[in-house]
Amino acid sequence: MPQMSRQPLVIALSVALGALTLAPMVHADPQSSMREERARREAELGKGKTTAKAEAKAPDYPNATRQSPDAKASPKVIKQLQAMQERYEKDDWAGVIAKAEEIAGMSGANAYDKSFAYSMAGNAAASMDDQAKAAEYFAKAIAENGLDNDSHYATMYNLAATQYGEGKYADALATVDRFLAETKSEKPEHLSLRASILANLDRYDEAAAIYKRLFAQKPDDKRMLMNAVSVLQSAEKFDEANALLGDAYKRGMLTDPRELRALYIGYMNAGKWAEAQKVIEDGVAKGILQPGPDLARDYQILAQTAYANDNMPLAVEMYRRAAPMAADGEAYLNLAKVLDYTGKKAEAKEAAKQALAKGVKKPEDANRILAR
């Protein structure tokens, strides 16, 4: 007889979600800030063709509590800043860093000059994939406190994202909390970074609350949905995760194999076998779920459950679906055992032959069926 467990099914979440990970956070794009700073320097040199446009731009953080300083380059340092900018535009990252260090050490450099130089050095270090150095420079740029609000907070966000990428989650949380407290930002990308950090600190309830709120604001955002599901499952709030996925499924949002699998594995973990089977069959019919070892394994789980519930016809059907796409002959062997148990000797022997052909751990089990 097939050795089917009648214990409640538990499937590791990392497997169930197909190694689902939180949305990666990237460095905030520094280019808009760089263009604005360059426009200011050109204006100081009498070259400011884009000054009016730069000044007319609405602030990125209109509710910021920080008083934006009168950020201007020192006349003694303008040429050095221009030289650094030229190196940046040529992707001369080492040259940018060297020039930034030189500027920061100049006696005539003011807070703006130093902040801007350090922020450029941070972006250059990030481009060289030296994230530790990038974080160091971003922190120095913030500490000098010389940039306008848009550039200052873009740098602070870069620091938080860099710390997050380096796995320094406590530091990243402190930085992003300061960023949010001072900017009063409610932008999804900023709140998502905080949620990602919280999740990596195992503070799943707090992370889930953020993702659920953001998903409620934008219910067609699939990435936000899957992030919410991931942290809810990590918090062992499976019913909530299933409810979110189930609603998204009804609205036609789940179009990827990983997404469907997250739903039907969730149903399996909740003991909702009929619902799980329906999702699988729907996914196969629509071509979303393709034949393969993963799908075979999930069919076998349904087969085992059907067997445990004495539903032999369904167990046979699920094993028949699983066996051809499985990586080995174990599904064929279990099919042979169920067929043999239900008195279908000829079909059982055929399945046993298939099991031996694909390879099983205990060929003697298949041979016993063939010998009857």
Query: Can you write the helix and strand succession as a string?
Result: HHHHHHHHHHHHHHHHHHHH
| CATH level 3 topology | Serine Threonine Protein Phosphatase 5, Tetratricopeptide repeat
Q: What's the mean pLDDT score?
A: 87
Strand content: under 5%
Rg over C-alpha atoms, rounded to the nearest angstrom: 30 Å
The fourth-level CATH homologous superfamily is: Tetratricopeptide repeat domain
InterPro entries: PPR_domain-containing, TPR-like_helical_dom_sf, TPR_rpt
Keywords: Signal
Describe this structure in words.
α7 packs antiparallel against α8 and α10 packs antiparallel against α11. The N terminus is likely disordered. The chain has one domain: Tetratricopeptide repeat domain (Serine Threonine Protein Phosphatase 5, Tetratricopeptide repeat), CATH 1.25.40. The chain contains 20 helices and no strands. The two termini are 14 Å apart. With 372 residues, it is mostly helical. The relative contact order is 0.08.
Show the helix and strand layout.
Elements: H1 13-16, H2 31-44, H3 51-56, H4 78-89, H5 93-104, H6 111-127, H7 131-144, H8 149-165, H9 169-183, H10 188-200, H11 204-217, H12 222-234, H13 238-250, H14 257-269, H15 273-285, H16 293-308, H17 312-325, H18 330-341, H19 345-358, H20 363-371
Keywords:
single chain, 372 residues, mainly alpha, Serine Threonine Protein Phosphatase 5, Tetratricopeptide repeat, PPR_domain-containing
